[in-house]
Design a protein that fits this description.
Distance between the termini: 30 Å
Largest sheet: 5 strands, mixed, barrel
Radius of gyration: 13 Å
Structural class: mainly beta
Number of helices: 0
Shape: globular
Order of helices and strands: EEEEEEEEEEEE
Length: 132
């Protein structure tokens, strides 16, 4: 398999501030904070319990600003084995999991993923979409 890659234009990247209380790894799924103190504050999307915003493009320390990808093809950490061609949703730790009925969908897995490894996801865009 070829090296995973990111495909994104400038319109697909947002500068966001991590105010989650802990550092965020590269390739984790994030959501906008419900009660921000500054614009574009993010928190880890821990268990498919909020509107998906995007994926961290690099590790972002707590209280620091970093890039979040909201459109295009992104590198995302898998929580377990994920097949190519399936819809994925966020799970514990902001990682991907095969989507199930009624949950928010981050996007489509372009490459397969294994636990704690980066794989390629074609993002659905901010907010995600509901799995049929």
């Amino acid at each position: 398999m070829s090296e995973p890659r990111v495909i994104v234009g400038a319109e697909g990247i947002r500068g966001c501030k991590n105010t989650s209380g802990s550092d965020m790894a590269k390739g984790v799924i994030v959501k906008l904070k419900a009660s921000p103190t500054v614009d574009d504050e993010i928190d880890l999307e821990a268990a498919n319990d909020g509107a998906i915003y995007g994926v961290t493009m690099q590790a972002i320390s707590d209280a620091a600003w970093g890039n979040v990808q909201v459109l295009g093809r992104a590198l995302v950490l898998a929580s377990t084995t994920v097949a190519a061609g399936v819809r994925v949703m966020p799970t514990t730790g902001g990682k991907t999991l095969t989507a199930t009925t009624g949950n928010s969908v981050l996007g489509l897995a372009v490459t397969a993923g294994a636990a704690d490894e980066l794989h390629e996801i074609e993002l659905s865009g901010p907010g995600g979409a509901a799995m049929p």
